[in-house]
């Protein structure tokens, strides 16, 4: 058919036949439109896988036509980051493909030891199955020992957990579509109140800082004034000490005047007693 289309220059038919041949040669890439998350997990495109799951486009445990999940694809190619994220998000690691393989079995088959370690060790499949059966039998034995009321309570608790998970998924999808829940509004209101309180405390802290700087400036001025007054006081004390050590110039004149006044009084007393008059001789005339 392709040769006839080329012979008669049927470009549309040639393009269609080329696409069919490419899909036959690349079956994994041909699944892009049907299972984009599986292809992203297979290629190790973590951001694409995360976006598709968080946006609710695909389910975290979605299966392809062979029954493989995203964990099977990531484990088979050794993409640790995607596998670890899927485990943290609650993806089931016990789901099997049409051939009965879990993600751990796929990792073991392709020799992805790091993924095998994350998924719970490198033991044989038979040992894993035995442990699984033992756990299931233990749970069944434990349930057999429960009373009817306890079994009802256990079923109710399991149902409640499932509903809570579904509610969480629905809330995430609602938020991603632009919706806002009452809890989100309360949380936003609390954040606004907290932010306002923080701003008030920051303003108060700034005011106290400026007030402290002003007090420190006044304290520095007081210290400088104290230093100046101490220096002036010491200068005054030095001057007083110097004046005390140096004798004053007027003491000798005072003593001379006292001696002259005493001699004058003595002369006057002698003149009164004797009747003689003493004549003062001027040293300059003599």
TrEMBL record:
Disordered as annotated region, ranges = 121-152, 247-274
Domain of life where this protein originates: Eukaryota
Q: Which Pfam families match?
A: Ank_2
Q: Which UniProt keywords apply?
A: ANK repeat, Repeat
Stretches of Basic and acidic residues bias are at 122-140
Name the InterPro entries on file: Ank_Repeat/CDKN_Inhibitor, Ankyrin_rpt, Ankyrin_rpt-contain_sf
Q: Which spans of this chain does UniProt mark as ANK repeats?
A: 66-98
Q: What is the protein name given in its UniProt record?
A: Uncharacterized protein
- Lineage, broadest ranks: Eukaryota, Metazoa, Spiralia, Gnathifera, Rotifera
């Amino acid at each position: 058919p392709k040769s006839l289309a080329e012979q008669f220059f049927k470009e549309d038919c040639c393009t269609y036949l080329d696409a069919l041949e490419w899909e036959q040669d690349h079956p994994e890439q041909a699944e892009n439109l049907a299972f984009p998350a599986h292809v992203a997990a297979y290629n190790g495109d973590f951001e694409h896988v995360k976006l598709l799951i968080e946006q609710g486009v695909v389910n975290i445990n979605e299966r392809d036509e062979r029954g493989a999940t995203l964990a099977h694809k990531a484990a088979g190619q050794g993409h640790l980051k995607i596998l670890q994220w899927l485990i943290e998000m609650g993806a089931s690691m016990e789901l099997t493909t049409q051939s009965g393989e879990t993600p751990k079995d796929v990792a073991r088959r392709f020799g992805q030891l790091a993924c095998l370690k994350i998924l719970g060790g490198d033991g044989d499949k038979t040992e894993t199955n035995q442990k699984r059966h033992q756990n299931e039998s233990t749970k069944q034995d434990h349930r057999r020992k429960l009373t009817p009321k306890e079994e009802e309570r256990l079923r109710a608790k399991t149902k409640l957990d499932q509903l809570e998970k579904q509610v969480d998924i629905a809330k995430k999808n609602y938020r991603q579509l632009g919706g806002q829940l009452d809890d989100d509004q309360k949380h936003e209101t609390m954040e606004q109140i907290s932010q306002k309180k923080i701003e008030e405390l920051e303003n108060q802290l700034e005011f106290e800082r400026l007030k402290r700087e002003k007090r420190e400036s006044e304290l520095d001025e007081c210290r400088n004034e104290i230093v100046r007054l101490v220096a002036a006081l010491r200068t005054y004390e030095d001057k007083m000490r110097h004046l005390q050590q140096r004798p004053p110039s007027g003491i000798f004149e005072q003593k001379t005047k006292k001696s002259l006044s005493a001699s004058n009084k003595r002369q006057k007393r002698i003149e009164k007693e004797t009747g003689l008059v003493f004549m003062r001789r001027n040293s300059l005339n003599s």
